[in-house]
């Protein structure tokens, strides 16, 4: 339901932006996975604020503490409970916002739905909650790495491909993991990355914010993953992506462009390549009928501009009176660089879940 | 899981394209809803094939039979089981396809996943299965109509807004339900509809297929619907849309375009209008933090071109040998007109589910 | 939720006693299982009414029709939809009961909960709905038989061990399947069975009803099945059993008797027997910490007397007036013989589900 | 699934007996509930060890920390994450047990299932995990108290009614809450309580353990709660009870005794009493067709003797060699007094869940 994601490999999260801690429970991770805590911490480091001038100056150690489910370095098959303390929560920054409904924030909707809300830092609606997803993703990744012992490992490539109007020039197929983290923009095209950085600097100076597109590609996923009808690989991916703050669009394979390409072109002809069943083109984005076909799974995620801006804005308060608002709190002028690790985490979680679900697909599995 | 959609108002479906019947079970529909069978049948009629030259010539009565859950015309609160017979299944058309993997169809992926597949008409991967969704949507709609007795009813407007490169000129806000069904294209812009019809005719003559975009708008949905974090209103919508055959993209509110609009513009200022809390603009598409804010919920769904085309195609067979394929079976050169009712059905199902889930949001609900 | 049982191997049922049909959807049965329809029909025959003078005279063919999920005799991995028509529903027998609340029936509670009920034959609360469980159980059994190709097959023994005050003398360990169906009482102790039959005949003549106990033993279940904490093997069994009409008690292993046996006696010492890890005694009933240990899983299910009796009873009607009631409708003076196949079916369903869930327990599974 | 209980009001738990902490996430608690932390702590105090000579000498503060979901003293409608540290874990006591399979413990079955286990204090199979259930129960109770503002509150009475062969003489209907906690045995019959205390003292001196029966009665539950078919009120209760360590039996209403009572006696005649619909007798235990009828919900839970005893026992080790075992670790000679609060907690959780589920039962709810 609301705070649980996944069927077998499942993450349930809790936490508000300025509460004592955020955290979660990962249930369904198989026993016997050797957990590398540093790798989890590293994934969190990629998401955490305060890494560069392009992101929020909130300083969080984001030190995860695993409380259960692991013994002698191996997972037990029991739930992995974990917490991440909220350290640098400057709740006072938000006092003036207590009775306001910030434009394009969830203040009003949380209040309507629940009658009572934690106004500090956006409460539960804060992107801070995605740190728990990153923890689960890092564990899913380790499970998968140890699961495919004698096979080519799936690889998840996620990077910033557009900020505002500035596109990356790199061709998806050529991106490699090591290129992504060479700049704080998480854009493998160094030249574009520089332009993007300049744009964000300008936007920040203007007290404004900007959106962009994150592209992803899952390589070497085995064919057969995905559960039709309603838990198709793309449905799981989409549901995940739209749970991330500021995401307003998702497409895979030929996406919105494909609406104009006739079937005679966009149909992906099956061929044999290096002894493997492949398709000549990949308009399908690696998924047919909701099930992976062994080709790269390609997708793009559209993020709108951050709602928190430093400019003066008009809005209303609880008493339905018009008020002026100058944003307090720290924020990201552009969330995309930090969102890369969230998108990646979800890919690993979905892969892990689909791999485990697939064990029940056939009698002789 | 795979074949169940929804949390409280839930639909579980079964059926292959050429099996004895398709159908499903609707569980969680409250008791006391007066069911109008004609309205269900009418919704099915909007989806069914053979309605115009622009759709497949398969002739299905699509006569739904409700087997349970209704007594004396009212729902019982017990599961509503229903079946829709497969009448005009010409399975022989598919015999030659038994050992082939049709390009961009799910033949190969179903075979990899399950080891055994029903090749006739695409089996479970056929869009025929969506008829069961339409039944559930029609029932959800009736529940909602009777639930909001003294309030403005939510309205779901879904229509074809683009076929290939031909866009509709109509502005979403001005579309009204009655305009949508005045032409077989389900496009409220009569002029564009004519051009679209011409395009499909040409495409069909060429033995080709084409995609397009369906736009939707849910009006008068109450504020407060949607379950953060992972069952946000947009996550549910997206998961639903990506379960529909040929859907490759989904966006809501400002969508992909919004990635280039700075926050100072795309932030929706709260105002009081006619005594109601509204926003001046609606870049958020009616959803903030996963919860509806009372503004119209706007979204767009991208459909790729149908995979079944009448031209000669190259592919491989089970023995991994290259083969030529001339498509048998009847098919739609463009699925969008028929898909309108599927998209609409999901909107009603999600609304119903979110309304029921919302009853537990507050102590004093 | 309410009408779905199981996690991976799942059955969702629908249907009222006198509606057009009952039925269900089995989701999660792996592909490639060779389905023997006769075996399913045979399981239904064991449950159906009208088999002997000891059961209801309602005559139902209970002919199941599989509508999907099977092709060329093999399961497809897709949902198996099925229906069983209601043929011999004499709804008129129930007209006089329309406004009454029969003692110990669900008439009143369904009306309070749902506001509207199908009074005919008990509607959804009728034991007739259990026929769908029997179908699922028969399919689960076939899956298991084909899953354990090179191993000893699990065996499920379920039989009547007590009717009223008459116990069966047979020792559980010595009961074999073939003995159970040699008499219509489903009691492997022929002598006790005769006494039970006499008791039921007397009870029936008196227009009364009687309860009893069904014992079960699952042999050769592999060690490791069951999902702690809340889906322990015994929790699943208990939830299943208490869903069966008239069940008021469940115990496994040492059960209620075990409350008086000190740990020094009831602790089951581990030993090696024939190269296998076994326990010297089996007070644990084959389950430790919610997980099977390879020993026989033993349990007992208590059924109260049937609520429908032929004697005059006092009760109230909808207008809260006292009324006299002489039962119409056909009924079983003792439900136990027919319930045997329902209990057995649930055992197979739970085994199948736990086997599939167990595939995700370990990294190297 | 395994570590989650409930449908809407849901508790997911984590934690091993000797890990850093145990804890859980309560999801689905409505917003606006005023939380009294002392009341939660008090419920934990009733369960915690070291309270009397009759229970384990392990000393745990059991100080729960709520990490989220509460703001300004009111629930937010967001998940309530909480932890309870493990303070007095003497893991060294268990070192000698690392390679043994203790009789009637879950050592062997966890190892078979997961391949890897935390041997310290029973790991996840320890009853220590039930503390998280108690937290959820205490919160559910507060929700219910605030939900029924103008109605008679449901009351949950749970007490020890038998230890070994010593029954309590008290009649269930006359037990009142205040009598239960007047002695450390949680037995409202003072005289029986003294005998029970003597028995446990003797049993403890003998290095042995003993079981017993806990009785429960839920009074003033509204009619209409429970979700047929598979989430009947009794199914939920039973699944919950069998998740508690050492529980081997559950019965409600007439239970096992009722198998011998003819329908003419056990049918509960409906009457009007004080203007309310009631039944003359209550063999049904307050539940008809899985739905509460407004009468007291009565049940009994059978606990076997604790598996940990201080006497010498024979068993085998991982190398399948016979070994002698003298139990280390602290334990309860009789778990029933502490289990009372666990049983009670589940009753509140189930009530809360069924109340929230019931909000969707009728159109006009």
Structure in words:
4 copies of one chain form a homotetramer. With 365 residues, the first copy, chain A, is an alpha+beta fold. Helix content of chain A is 25%, strand content 23%. Chain A has helices spanning 37-47, 107-114, 130-147, 177-180, 190-205, 233-241, 263-266, 336-358, and strands at 4-5, 10-14, 21-27, 65-66, 70-71, 74-75, 80-85, 100-101, 155-163, 166-167, 212-219, 247-252, 270-273, 276-279, 287-288, 291-292, 297-303, 312-317, 322-326. The first copy, chain A, has a 5-stranded antiparallel β-sheet with strand order 1-2-3-7-4, with helices on one face. The two termini of chain A are 29 Å apart. Chains in contact: A-B, A-C, A-D, B-C, B-D, C-D. The interface between A and B is large, with 113 and 113 residues. Strand 12 of chain A pairs antiparallel with strand 12 (247-252) of chain B, so a sheet runs across the interface.
| Global Rg of chain A | 21 Å
What general form of chain A does the structure show?
globular
Give the biggest beta sheet of chain A.
5 strands, antiparallel
Largest interface: A-B, 113 and 113 residues
Low-confidence stretches of chain A: none
| N- and C-termini, Cα separation of chain A | 29 Å
Give me the side-by-side strand order of the main sheet of chain A: 1-2-3-7-4
Give the rounded overall mean pLDDT of chain A.
94
- Following the backbone from N to C, one meets helices and strands of chain A in this order, namely EEEHEEEEEHHEEHHEHEHEEEEEEEH
Strand content of chain A: 15-25%
Helix count of chain A equals 8
Helix/strand structural class of chain A: alpha+beta
Assembly type: homotetramer
User: How much helix, percentage-wise, in residues of chain A?
Assistant: 25-40%
Q: Count the strands of chain A?
A: 19
């Amino acid at each position: 339901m609301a705070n649980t994601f996944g069927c077998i490999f499942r993450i349930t999260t809790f936490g508000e932006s300025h509460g004592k801690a955020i955290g979660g429970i990962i249930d369904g991770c198989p026993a016997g996975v050797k957990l590398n805590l540093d790798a989890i911490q590293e994934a969190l480091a990629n998401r955490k604020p305060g890494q560069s001038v392009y992101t929020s100056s909130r300083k969080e150690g984001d030190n995860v503490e695993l409380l259960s489910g692991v013994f002698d370095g191996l997972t037990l098959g029991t739930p992995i409970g974990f917490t991440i303390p909220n350290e640098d929560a400057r709740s006072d920054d938000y006092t003036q916002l207590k009775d306001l409904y910030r434009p394009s924030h969830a203040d009003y909707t949380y209040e309507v739905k629940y009658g009572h809300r934690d106004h500090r830092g956006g409460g539960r609606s804060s992107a801070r909650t995605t740190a728990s997803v990153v923890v689960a993703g890092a564990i899913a990744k380790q499970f998968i790495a140890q699961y495919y012992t004698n096979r080519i490992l799936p690889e998840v490539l996620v990077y910033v491909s557009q900020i505002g109007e500035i596109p990356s020039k790199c061709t998806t197929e050529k991106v490699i993991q090591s290129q992504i983290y060479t700049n704080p923009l998480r854009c493998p095209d160094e030249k574009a990355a520089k332009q993007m950085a300049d744009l964000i600097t300008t936007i920040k100076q203007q007290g404004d914010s900007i959106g962009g597109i994150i592209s992803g590609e899952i390589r070497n996923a085995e064919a057969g993953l995905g559960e039709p009808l309603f838990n198709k690989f793309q449905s799981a991916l989409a549901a995940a992506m739209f749970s991330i703050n500021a995401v307003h669009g998702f497409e895979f394979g030929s996406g919105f462009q494909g609406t104009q390409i006739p079937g005679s072109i966009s149909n992906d002809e099956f061929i044999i390549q290096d002894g493997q069943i492949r398709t000549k083109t990949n308009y399908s984005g690696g998924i047919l009928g909701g099930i992976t076909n062994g080709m790269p799974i390609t997708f793009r995620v559209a993020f709108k501009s951050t709602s928190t801006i430093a400019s003066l804005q008009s809005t209303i308060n609880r008493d339905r009176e018009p008020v002026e608002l100058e944003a307090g709190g720290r924020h990201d002028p552009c969330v995309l660089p930090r969102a890369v690790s969230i998108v990646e985490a979800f890919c690993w979680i979905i892969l892990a879940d689909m791999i485990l679900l697939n064990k029940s697909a056939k009698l002789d599995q």
